[in-house]
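Predict structure. Input: Hsp20/alpha crystallin family protein, 83 residues.
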Amino acid sequence: MNPQQTRSTGDGPLLRRFEYEDGWIVAADLGADAENVSVDTVGETAIVVIEGDGEPIESEFELPGAAASTAVANGVVTVEGER
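Output follows.
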């Protein structure tokens, strides 16, 4: 396993990337409830939308490849892909 912190800027999410022989995982700590978060992937980009009071907040981050699956649990978004 090769963990790498890819980005943490101010109040933004902490992103970590884990690379394995057969795939990778990108995790973003959002601190939001799963029912308020939606994740979509397009090519090598993940698009995260957080619904709450007022306008939704949208964020994008680059992936090391095309995503195979996404999940949200305990405020953490995970995107997994294969090599």
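The domain at 2-82 is CATH 2.60.40.790 (Immunoglobulin-like).
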